[in-house]
DNA sequence: GCATTAATTGGTC
DNA sequence: GACCAATTAATGC
């Protein structure tokens, strides 16, 4: 395995919670306990039900966080890009992970073991505070997600998912910087791959998005936004 | 090039 | 709007 040991002090992920707090000498000993893991595309690095052993960060790459339902039905809880935390729900408890995590492309991960992280959190209030803010935001997002699944139509859910990918990963030229299969998009939107295919065909015919092979691209961001915004407005009122 | 998997399309409930 | 089936496209080996 490639032991590329990344230095937090020089990390390109300016928004990483560890990176933000990586200043100062006292932190160095803790940062030295970090491990780097190389993950191939499709490789699973957190298994739902397995005992919690630590916390991951995406150093470089993309990953999906998945919850498995009854008949092998999967729900993509979120997508993660450079600098983002994965596995934080399990932290603190001695229980099992409630989610699985799979690399969507060849990725490099940072990994802290439970004990090391615990010591860090006890030692650095600013770090702990930033973690708390992060947890609060996560809770907010998942509450919104509940609403989405309960009340949006399939078309709206697919649009919302495409906008989510657009927000998070951006778009070079006219193609999104992330590629999901129809099945994965369905798992993200909370529908079936057939419905996703049909919705994509419609959106393409309406010139709201475009496709290039399996790649997706946003053409008319304003109209797409409007469709889900109207919905949100309705829900908020 | 062949075999497997993914995407699309049409139909039923 | 989910599930199933048939066809076609894409991908891996």
Which helices and strands, and how do they pair?
Layout: H1 17-20, H2 28-31, E1 35-39, E2 44-46, E3 54-60, E4 63-68, E5 74-80, E6 85-86, E7 100-103, E8 107-113, H3 114-123, H4 125-151, H5 154-169, E9 171-172, E10 175-176, H6 182-189, H7 193-205, E11 209-212, E12 215-218, H8 221-236
This protein binds a DNA duplex (13 and 13 nucleotides) through helix 7.
Can you describe this structure?
The chain is α+β, with helices and mostly antiparallel strands. Helices cover 41% and strands 22% of the residues. It has helices spanning 17-20, 28-31, 114-123, 125-151, 154-169, 182-189, 193-205, 221-236; strands at 35-39, 44-46, 54-60, 63-68, 74-80, 85-86, 100-103, 107-113, 171-172, 175-176, 209-212, 215-218. The strands form four sheets. Strands 1-8-3-6 form a four-stranded antiparallel beta sheet. Strands 2-7-4-5 form a four-stranded antiparallel beta sheet. A hairpin with a 2-residue loop joins strand 11 (209-212) and strand 12.
At a glance:
The chain has 237 residues and is an alpha+beta fold.
């Amino acid at each position: 395995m490639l032991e590329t040991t990344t230095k937090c002090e020089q990390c390109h992920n300016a928004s990483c919670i560890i990176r933000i707090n990586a200043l100062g000498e006292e932190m160095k000993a803790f940062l030295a306990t970090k491990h780097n893991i190389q993950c191939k595309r499709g490789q699973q690095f957190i298994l739902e039900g397995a005992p919690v052993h630590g916390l991951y960060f995406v150093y470089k790459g993309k990953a999906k966080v998945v919850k498995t339902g009854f008949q092998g039905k999967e729900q993509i809880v979120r997508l993660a890009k450079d600098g983002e935390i994965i596995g934080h729900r399990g932290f603190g408890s001695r229980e099992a992970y409630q989610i699985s995590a799979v690399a969507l492309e060849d990725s490099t991960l940072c990994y802290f073991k439970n004990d090391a992280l615990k010591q860090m959190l006890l030692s650095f209030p600013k770090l702990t505070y930033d973690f708390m803010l992060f947890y609060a935001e996560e809770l907010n997002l998942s509450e919104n997600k509940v609403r989405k699944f309960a009340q949006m139509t399939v078309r709206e859910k697919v649009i919302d998912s495409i906008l989510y990918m657009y927000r998070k990963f951006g778009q070079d030229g006219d193609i999104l910087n992330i590629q999901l299969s129809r099945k994965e998009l369905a798992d993200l939107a909370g529908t079936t791959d057939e419905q996703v295919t049909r919705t994509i065909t419609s959106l393409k015919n309406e010139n709201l998005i475009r496709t290039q092979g399996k790649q997706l691209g946003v053409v008319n961001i304003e109209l797409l936004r409007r469709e889900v915004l109207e919905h949100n407005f309705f829900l908020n009122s």
